[in-house]
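Hi there. Long-time user, first ticket. I'm pasting a complex I've been working with (about 815 residues overall). I'd like to know whether the download I got is complete or cut off, because the file seemed smaller than I expected. Thanks.
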Amino acid sequence: MKRAWSVLLVFLVLVLALGFGAGNLKFAIETEPVGLDPHLITAFASHRILENVYDGLLMYDAEMNLVPALAESFEIVDPNTVVFTLRSNVTFHDGSPLTMEDVLYSFERIRDPNMGSPAASYYTEVSSIRDLGDNRLEFKLNVPMVAPLLHNLAGVNSSIVSKEFVESGANMQLQTNGTGPFQIAEYVAGDHITLQKCANFYEQGIPKLDSITFVIIPEEIGRVSALRNGDVHLAKISEPVSLNMLSANAFTIYRQPVLSYYLLGLNDQAGALADPRVRRAISMAIDREALIKMVAFGEAAVTGVMNPTVEAWAVPPSAFPEFSYNPQKAKELLEEAGYGDGFSFSITAAARYNFDKVAQVIQAQLAQVGIQANLDMVEWGIFIQKWRDIDFDSFVSMNGGSVDPDKQLYRTFHSEGSTNKFHFSNARVDELLEAGRLETNLQKQYEIYAELQYLLVEESPFIFLYSPNNLFASTLRVSGFSPMPNESLTELRVTEIQ
Amino acid sequence: MKLSFILGRLLSAIPTLLILTFLVFIALHLVPGDVVDIMLGTQNFLSEEQVQQLYSRLGLDKPLMVQYGLWLKNFFTFNLGTSLRTGEPVAKMIVEKFPVTFELALFSIVFSMLLGVPLGIFSAVKRNSKPDYVIRVLGLVGLSAPAFWIGAIFIVLVSGAFVNFTLFGFVPLFKNPGVNLQVMLFPSITLGMMVAAQIMRMSRNSMLDVLSQEYVRVARAKGLPAKKVILKHALRNALVPVVTTAGIQLGYLMGGTIVIENMFALPGMGRLLLQAVNQRDYPVVQGVVAFIGVLIVLLNILVDILYSLIDPRIELG
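Hi, the file is complete. Here it is re-exported in full:
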């Protein structure tokens, strides 16, 4: 009898060891990719998978510094010209070597108007991309804007694809062939995606894991439970309150402040909101700290025009009275603007990422200074259409952020900016935005963006609220994982599991 | 005669399906926000011109009626089109997802019959006793507790109490039956709870009705044991409305899978449908709805055939 038990025990241990092989990480995520073509994807859920499968010329490291990827180095020849030297030992997952032709073809594909690539606009100011021979590649620009160009080269949308593979008629939305540390081994839509280690990745010893299985579990309670009973090793946590279910001595919690931020978007032509004093009053009537406590359970930080963690550029929120709760001052400003008896407007929000809850808290806070906010709760698709058509008084949403001031500010605040859905137009702001992107002297550029930040707070075209912490939890067997400020998961290449 | 009945039912289903797919098509296109809006989200870098190109590439620049006509034409040649988001053929997506949903619905209905029918009969036989009251109250609870709540309770309790029980990570039944059954257990129970309550109530009422009929009284009067009267004489007749309920409930279960599959992360059709609606992936929604429509029509025909098997007095046609 004893013997039978020990045989069973050995068997169980073996099964467990095989089932959870040394380097196989199971990672619960909330949404799955929508399409796999790196030049077409817009969904963040696609980005975070594909950035482990495809490479661009550059990438960000864990501290958001630009570092070489497929380009082993680059040289800024003059403010309009940058020359990259490609790595020579890179192969695609199908075994074919990466060539200069693939690189040139990739940028042609991105810039092809028939493709409708979201990255096409990154390269409108590029006048030529040339092969200089010797693995050297030259980008020439019409304007001296090399810095934003370098940031644009680091996104998944600027990945290098294999010319031969694309031209063979492969459906790029369903099939992948990248140069990244992992390749897609299996994808069962609605269930899981398995990435397998790519044996001939150009960097020795990377990746550390043999495979990663992204298990798609849409419900938060499901992800937390899957982590607790060992179905997965690592899980995305969307609701800070879930952390209460994970005891600190059995799980590692990862908190990463991100660059994205919640905002109360305003229609700067809608009634009282057309007056910057009213907009500043709203800013001061919102108690951001309370908002963070109530909605984000403390897992967030007040943010400004530039994210305060981007120390090279940001004027910290503490420099502005507008970011501190001051109902008295808010009332004075309303009085001054002729709205001493208050006014009413509507807040449009969808039940997603807690936008609805943020709207409710703001509604309650604004009531304290006599402003009546009416909530207009809509489905996400309806929200996007209202946003696109500027069919709102105000809305709660989230904007992606950047470490680069031009990327963070131009499209949002320039009167012609593609995501300026605020009817905001200010000649001086436009002037500064245009000067900032062309300025090559770092000190002068800093001064331009500092003036811009003060001006933008004075105008308050919309209300900056807070940047949340990106939360993950893992079992204690996982090490080396670190989520990044841009919510990227490229650090999975150095993650290990015992 | 049976064959002509079935053919007739199938033909009469065609207008139903036409109306169904047309309504879904129109409803989905009337909802503000289309597939391109959602694709681009609020971080849109495309120019107006590029956006228009996107519409025409997806075939969405044609008038609505033309789009529906094209879809219908393809539908009758068994071509369900491809997903606007991923380019994957819709038929392939359905074929992949259907087994999961079917297994879930089947397990749920089996669970609900196993639980509902005996409880209902017991309750009817012991009418107005304490056990009857308890069962009836439980039935009410089962009917009124929403599935997403019951599901969440199960998930929290099971993940806390049974660390080695696999709750998440679907594997097909024939690939690994052990894990499959673990993963399917609680979703099936959750989904089956509400149906079990309905079946229980239906069995109870139906049984009470039959028990009060003359032939049952005759059977009792001639001295047959109670067990025999109930199981042999009454049960068969009492089951007819129960089977109807179960048949109708299968249709409900198909809808219920949307919530349950999302909750328990099962890669089935319900989840596919929800995701497609959220992304306004028109061909996928149309395809799945048409497929479920056909399925429910077939199920109803099957239920009609089952009637005549249970009660030979009922003739088809």
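A couple of notes from our side: Chain B touches chain A through 56 residues (CB under 8 Å). Chain B has twelve helices and no strands.
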